[in-house]
Design brief:
Layout (H helix, E strand, L loop, with lengths): L8 H33 L8 E3 L2 E3 L2 E6 L4 E5 L4 H9 L9 E6 L8 E9 L2 E6 L4 E5 L13 E8 L3
Antiparallel strand pairs: 1-5, 2-3, 3-4, 5-9, 6-7, 6-9, 7-8
Length: about 160
Protein backbone atom coordinates (compact mmCIF):
# COMPACT_ATOMS: atom_id res chain seq x y z
CA UNK A 1 0.00 0.00 0.00
CA UNK A 2 2.91 2.26 -0.45
CA UNK A 3 1.35 3.82 -3.60
CA UNK A 4 -1.96 4.80 -1.96
CA UNK A 5 -2.02 8.19 -0.32
CA UNK A 6 -4.27 8.49 2.70
CA UNK A 7 -6.04 11.78 3.30
CA UNK A 8 -4.60 13.82 6.12
CA UNK A 9 -7.80 14.87 7.82
CA UNK A 10 -6.04 16.96 10.43
CA UNK A 11 -4.14 18.96 7.79
CA UNK A 12 -7.34 19.44 5.73
CA UNK A 13 -9.24 20.63 8.81
CA UNK A 14 -6.44 23.01 9.74
CA UNK A 15 -6.34 24.42 6.19
CA UNK A 16 -10.12 25.00 6.25
CA UNK A 17 -9.89 26.76 9.60
CA UNK A 18 -7.11 28.99 8.28
CA UNK A 19 -9.11 29.85 5.13
CA UNK A 20 -12.32 30.65 7.04
CA UNK A 21 -11.18 34.06 8.40
CA UNK A 22 -10.18 35.03 4.86
CA UNK A 23 -13.62 34.02 3.58
CA UNK A 24 -15.33 35.96 6.36
CA UNK A 25 -13.15 38.98 5.67
CA UNK A 26 -13.95 38.79 1.94
CA UNK A 27 -17.68 38.64 2.69
CA UNK A 28 -17.37 41.56 5.11
CA UNK A 29 -15.51 43.63 2.51
CA UNK A 30 -18.20 42.91 -0.09
CA UNK A 31 -20.92 43.93 2.39
CA UNK A 32 -19.10 47.18 3.16
CA UNK A 33 -18.72 47.93 -0.54
CA UNK A 34 -22.44 47.37 -1.11
CA UNK A 35 -23.30 49.55 1.90
CA UNK A 36 -20.97 52.31 0.71
CA UNK A 37 -22.54 52.21 -2.74
CA UNK A 38 -26.03 52.47 -1.28
CA UNK A 39 -24.95 55.32 0.97
CA UNK A 40 -23.58 57.23 -2.01
CA UNK A 41 -26.71 56.47 -4.04
CA UNK A 42 -29.14 57.75 -1.42
CA UNK A 43 -28.31 61.26 -0.29
CA UNK A 44 -31.06 62.68 1.86
CA UNK A 45 -29.46 66.15 2.10
CA UNK A 46 -29.78 66.89 -1.61
CA UNK A 47 -32.71 67.16 -3.98
CA UNK A 48 -33.24 64.42 -6.53
CA UNK A 49 -33.65 67.02 -9.29
CA UNK A 50 -31.68 70.26 -9.15
CA UNK A 51 -32.15 73.46 -11.16
CA UNK A 52 -29.74 76.16 -12.26
CA UNK A 53 -30.28 79.07 -14.62
CA UNK A 54 -27.36 79.51 -17.04
CA UNK A 55 -26.95 82.73 -19.02
CA UNK A 56 -24.32 84.35 -21.23
CA UNK A 57 -21.87 86.76 -19.62
CA UNK A 58 -19.03 88.27 -21.64
CA UNK A 59 -19.32 85.46 -24.17
CA UNK A 60 -19.30 82.63 -21.59
CA UNK A 61 -22.10 80.42 -20.34
CA UNK A 62 -22.23 80.97 -16.56
CA UNK A 63 -24.68 80.49 -13.71
CA UNK A 64 -25.31 81.81 -10.21
CA UNK A 65 -26.58 79.75 -7.30
CA UNK A 66 -26.77 81.61 -3.99
CA UNK A 67 -27.76 78.38 -2.18
CA UNK A 68 -24.26 76.99 -2.79
CA UNK A 69 -22.32 80.28 -2.98
CA UNK A 70 -21.62 80.31 -6.72
CA UNK A 71 -21.56 83.50 -8.76
CA UNK A 72 -20.91 83.56 -12.51
CA UNK A 73 -19.57 80.00 -12.42
CA UNK A 74 -18.50 79.30 -16.01
CA UNK A 75 -19.02 76.22 -18.12
CA UNK A 76 -15.71 75.46 -19.89
CA UNK A 77 -13.80 72.72 -21.72
CA UNK A 78 -16.63 71.33 -23.82
CA UNK A 79 -19.40 71.80 -21.26
CA UNK A 80 -19.93 75.21 -22.85
CA UNK A 81 -20.41 73.51 -26.23
CA UNK A 82 -23.01 71.16 -24.72
CA UNK A 83 -24.88 74.15 -23.28
CA UNK A 84 -24.66 75.98 -26.62
CA UNK A 85 -26.14 73.02 -28.54
CA UNK A 86 -28.98 72.44 -26.07
CA UNK A 87 -29.83 76.14 -25.74
CA UNK A 88 -30.19 76.67 -29.51
CA UNK A 89 -33.89 75.91 -29.46
CA UNK A 90 -34.68 78.16 -26.49
CA UNK A 91 -35.79 81.70 -27.31
CA UNK A 92 -33.76 84.26 -25.37
CA UNK A 93 -31.45 81.61 -23.89
CA UNK A 94 -28.55 84.05 -23.75
CA UNK A 95 -30.51 86.00 -21.10
CA UNK A 96 -31.12 82.81 -19.12
CA UNK A 97 -32.86 79.45 -19.24
CA UNK A 98 -33.58 76.65 -16.79
CA UNK A 99 -31.38 73.56 -16.66
CA UNK A 100 -32.81 70.70 -14.62
CA UNK A 101 -30.40 67.86 -13.80
CA UNK A 102 -30.33 64.68 -11.76
CA UNK A 103 -28.33 61.50 -11.24
CA UNK A 104 -31.58 59.61 -11.93
CA UNK A 105 -33.77 59.69 -15.02
CA UNK A 106 -36.86 61.88 -14.75
CA UNK A 107 -39.82 62.55 -17.07
CA UNK A 108 -38.86 65.00 -19.79
CA UNK A 109 -35.08 64.68 -19.56
CA UNK A 110 -33.53 65.44 -22.94
CA UNK A 111 -29.94 64.31 -22.74
CA UNK A 112 -27.78 61.90 -20.81
CA UNK A 113 -24.22 62.65 -19.77
CA UNK A 114 -22.08 59.60 -19.02
CA UNK A 115 -19.05 59.78 -16.74
CA UNK A 116 -15.71 59.17 -18.45
CA UNK A 117 -12.88 60.15 -16.10
CA UNK A 118 -11.67 62.48 -13.35
CA UNK A 119 -9.20 65.23 -14.12
CA UNK A 120 -7.91 68.20 -12.14
CA UNK A 121 -10.61 67.92 -9.49
CA UNK A 122 -13.41 67.91 -12.07
CA UNK A 123 -14.99 65.18 -14.16
CA UNK A 124 -15.37 64.54 -17.88
CA UNK A 125 -18.79 63.50 -19.20
CA UNK A 126 -19.82 62.37 -22.67
CA UNK A 127 -23.16 62.98 -24.36
CA UNK A 128 -23.97 60.55 -27.14
CA UNK A 129 -26.93 62.75 -28.18
CA UNK A 130 -24.71 65.82 -28.54
CA UNK A 131 -21.69 63.84 -29.75
CA UNK A 132 -19.40 65.79 -27.45
CA UNK A 133 -17.47 65.53 -24.22
CA UNK A 134 -17.36 68.20 -21.55
CA UNK A 135 -15.56 68.81 -18.27
CA UNK A 136 -17.61 69.68 -15.21
CA UNK A 137 -15.52 71.56 -12.67
CA UNK A 138 -15.40 70.81 -8.93
CA UNK A 139 -18.55 72.93 -8.46
CA UNK A 140 -20.26 69.62 -9.39
CA UNK A 141 -19.67 68.59 -5.77
CA UNK A 142 -21.91 71.40 -4.56
CA UNK A 143 -24.73 69.28 -6.01
CA UNK A 144 -23.47 65.70 -5.71
CA UNK A 145 -21.43 64.08 -2.96
CA UNK A 146 -19.55 62.03 -5.55
CA UNK A 147 -19.44 62.37 -9.33
CA UNK A 148 -22.46 60.43 -10.62
CA UNK A 149 -22.03 57.79 -13.31
CA UNK A 150 -24.83 59.49 -15.27
CA UNK A 151 -26.39 62.93 -15.27
CA UNK A 152 -29.81 63.40 -16.88
CA UNK A 153 -30.59 66.91 -18.06
CA UNK A 154 -33.47 68.99 -19.38
CA UNK A 155 -33.09 72.46 -20.91
CA UNK A 156 -36.16 74.72 -20.99
CA UNK A 157 -37.16 78.38 -21.03
CA UNK A 158 -36.83 80.19 -17.74
CA UNK A 159 -40.19 80.89 -16.11
CA UNK A 160 -41.17 84.56 -16.32
Amino acid sequence: MAGIRRPNLEADALANIQREPTRRLSRAIMSLRRAAHLERSVDTDMNAIMAIHPYKYEGLWVFDDAKVDLVQEPFVSGADKMIEKMAQGIAGADSGFTLLFSASPFPGYQTLLEWRREEMGGNWYYSKDLETEGWLCPALFKYFETAPERIYAQFKPKAA
